[in-house]
Amino acid sequence: MNISTSKKRIILSSIILVVLLGLNILNYKTYMNGESFNYMSFIISILFSILSCILFAIKIDLNKKLNILFSIFSFILSIFFSYMIIELLNQNTLFSLYNKRLIFNFIVIVVLHILIYAVSNKISLTIIITNSILFILGIINYTVTCFRGTPLVPWDILSLKTAAYVATTYTFSINYYLLLSTSLFVFILSVGSKAKYTFSKTFINIVIRFILLIIVLASILLFYNSSIIDYFDFENNLWKPTDEYLNNGFLASFVKQSKNLFNDEPDNYSPENVENLLIELEDSIYQEDLVSTLPTGSSIENDSPNIVVIMSESFSDLTVNRRV
Question: Rounded to whole angstroms, how far apart are CA atoms 116 and 123?
Answer without folding.
Answer: 9
